């Protein structure tokens, strides 16, 4: 698979949920269990995730299922 862009955007929970197809509670649960990339806290109350890490996690889940 070829990476279209070298940029690594920080994305919010809504975008994370859209990419991986899971709800907010499950995202936070998986993160607490160490099974999902950790969030970044750029300031204030906001939480953001690395889009590259989220997409890599999704690809790993797909590969694991195919095995």
> What series of H and E elements makes up the topology?
EHHEEH
**Largest sheet composition:** 3 strands, antiparallel
The total tally of domains equals 1
Oligomer: single chain
Q: Return residue spans where pLDDT drops below 50 for at least 5 consecutive residues.
A: none
- Strand order of the main beta sheet, please? 1-3-2
Summing up helix and strand content along with how strands pair, one would put the structural category as alpha+beta
Helix count, DSSP H or I runs of 4 or more residues: 3
Mean of all residue-level pLDDT scores? 90
Q: What overall geometry do the principal axes of the alpha carbons give?
A: globular
Radius of gyration of CA atoms, rounded to a whole number: 12 Å
Portion of residues in beta strands equals 15-25%
Q: Assign a percent range to the helix content.
A: 40-55%
Count all strands and give the number.
3
Distance between the termini: 18 Å
